[in-house]
Write a structure and sequence with these properties.
This protein is α+β, with helices and mostly antiparallel strands. Helix content is 31%, strand content 21%.
Length: 570
């Protein structure tokens, strides 16, 4: 066989199916692809872990997943938000966070594979994600100066990790091994076919990557990332612990004006029927906060300022507790509640009358010549909610609540202070984690939801709901209790009616009414006959208005229509 000096046998046969040394088509090609993807995942995990640790030095709300999720919520059109609330309920935040992590994982996988050929491009992709996270951080309404820092730290850590790990996957040619065919130990030999001393070059080894080095580096990176993430979570938890401690130390004083006892017969206590008072852990929660704010009551402050304010007020939590507190049963309803939906709840609230505070600040309602017709409430997370000043000061029990069902407000429901205004949907009245009240006008300022196609003014619509039987229930013929709740806050419920299969309306028995600001239970004993039936309900409030049958969506000011359930009787 003729050997060409300086060219290995493997190289000379490259055109016949043997891969050239150093090229990615070597024996480890198919192993490198999944390991490249794995390196991307590890780099992504490291980036998030480093960002979590950095957020402990800033604030938990500055973590990339939180700020990107918040930006996604802000940019989502109302139908998308409505879809999320309708299908995922109070779990919509978890679904969004899982979705963000899934997208990040796919992004990391792609960057890991890309880095096999172009390490710098892979690392640059991680930096790009960091830039997006930083942009999202500064776009938040409650953005602080250092909020971009976790995203920057995270992307730098991720880029370094990906560059290092992908470097371990670069194919390198195995060292050449010189030898002698029938020659001596000097590496020179003779080829008898050439009749002289011709140097012989052995074929180069196959292109390989440092598998052991990659495994060691990937393992170390994963362990370090897990440690950084755990440390970050622990440090952030210490902040949450301080807030929890401040809540645990609060002893709500006895209200100066306690709520009247719930009338006998107001709670029918039927299986499947919503209880008169909704437990705190079962009360609906609909908001945009991916991370529930944990505010230390000891450092909390409220500022009241703006148009028509002759005396600006700055109040601490202790200041509020020293005021005359009132206790009231009030039903809240979310504007995202579909007909028959679950986003309504009744609780016993303790707080101070909002109208009294505004009067102390010198505020007059528009009916008395005041220049401001909108009260803009701001949350610690930047949420803004606009409420008509006239409504707040018309004599209803609008309050700054500090307690819910006999205890300090839960964190998820606005601790330490939130607004409660009977008769208005939450998006125009029920600001949680309150920190600022500004008097202005509707012409000068649009609050968060108004900018997203919702109405400026939104009184709660008269509605009713069938709680039992449940949709598609299988029932036995005979007397079947049909029961539910109806609400028309600040007006009161006068009548509830049921019909079967579009037949005549039957008047339901109403439970005793507590106040006009609470929902009212109702019951109708149905003589059920075999077959498939449709039950419908409608309510009439004390102004004489009866629910319309016309179906309308929640946007822009609440859903309308009759709630119905289909059941089978055997």
């Amino acid at each position: 066989m003729i050997r060409i000096p300086g060219v290995s046998e493997q190289t000379s046969r490259n055109g016949h199916g043997t891969a050239a040394p150093g090229r990615p088509g070597g024996p480890g090609r198919w192993l490198r692809l999944p390991l490249g993807a794995l390196s991307g995942l590890i780099a992504g995990f490291g980036a998030l872990a480093a960002a979590e640790l950095a957020s402990a030095a800033v604030r938990p709300q500055a973590s990339p997943v939180t700020v990107v999720g918040g930006a996604a919520i802000d940019l989502a059109p109302p139908p998308v938000k409505d879809f999320a609330v309708r299908h995922f309920g109070t779990g919509d935040k978890l679904v969004l966070q899982l979705g963000i992590l899934a997208v990040l994982a796919l992004f990391a996988l792609a960057l890991g594979v890309a880095a096999l050929r172009h390490r710098r491009i892979g690392a640059a992709g991680v930096l790009l994600f960091g830039a997006l996270g930083s942009a999202a951080a500064v776009s938040r309404p409650d953005a602080a100066a250092w909020d971009p820092l976790p995203s920057v730290v995270g992307c730098l850590a991720g880029a370094v990790l990906l560059y290092a790990l992908s470097g371990r996957l670069v194919n390198r040619t195995a060292p050449r091994r010189a030898g002698a065919r029938g020659g001596d130990d000097t590496g020179a030999g003779t080829d008898s076919g050439q009749g002289g001393n011709t140097p012989v070059t052995e074929p180069a080894g196959p292109a390989v990557f440092d598998r052991r080095g990659f495994v060691a580096a990937a393992g170390a990176a994963a362990v370090a990332s897990a440690g950084a993430g755990a440390l970050g979570r622990s440090l952030n938890a210490s902040h949450l612990t301080r807030a929890a401690t401040s809540r645990a130390r609060i002893h709500l004083p006895r209200p100066h004006s306690p709520a009247s006892p719930v009338p006998h017969g107001a709670d029918l206590r039927l299986p499947g029927l919503s209880p008169f008072h909704t437990p705190n852990d079962g009360f609906y929660r609909v908001d945009t906060a991916l991370v529930v704010p944990r505010v230390d009551a000891g450092t909390w402050r409220l500022r009241i300022h703006g148009k028509g304010v002759s005396r600006e007020l700055r109040l601490s939590f202790a200041d509020l507790l020293r005021r005359d507190l009132v206790e009231r049963d009030i039903t809240l309803t979310c504007v995202s509640n579909q007909v028959g939906g679950p986003y309504a709840g009744n609780a016993r609230w303790i707080g101070t009358h909002l109208a009294g505070l505004l009067r102390e600040a010198g505020v007059r309602p528009p009916s008395e010549g005041g220049p401001a017709d909108q009260l803009v409430a701001r949350s610690v997370d930047g949420m803004t909610i606009g409420t008509p000043v006239e409504t707040v000061m018309d004599g209803r029990d609008a309050m700054l609540a500090v307690g819910m069902n006999g205890e300090p407000l839960p964190f998820a429901h606005g601790f330490p202070v939130r607004m409660v205004v009977p008769g208005l949907y939450g998006y125009v009245s029920a600001c949680k984690w309150l920190t600022d009240l500004e008097l202005t006008t509707f012409d000068e300022y649009d609050a968060y939801w108004v900018k997203r196609s919702w109405s400026r003014r939104a009184p709660i619509k008269t509605e009713s709901r069938i709680d039992t039987p449940k949709p598609l229930a299988d029932l036995k013929a005979g007397t079947v209790p049909v029961a539910g709740v109806a609400w028309a806050q600040h007006k009161g419920i006068a009548r509830v009616e049921i019909r079967v299969d579009a037949g005549p309306w039957h008047r339901a028995r109403l439970a005793a009414q507590d106040t006009a600001d609470t929902w009212r239970q109702w019951l109708w004993n149905w003589p059920a006959t075999p077959g498939r039936h449709t039950l419908e309900v409608r309510a009439t409030d004390r102004t004489g208005y009866t629910q319309t049958s016309r179906r309308a969506d929640t946007v822009p000011d609440g859903a309308t229509g009759w709630h119905s359930v289909v059941v089978t009787v055997t």
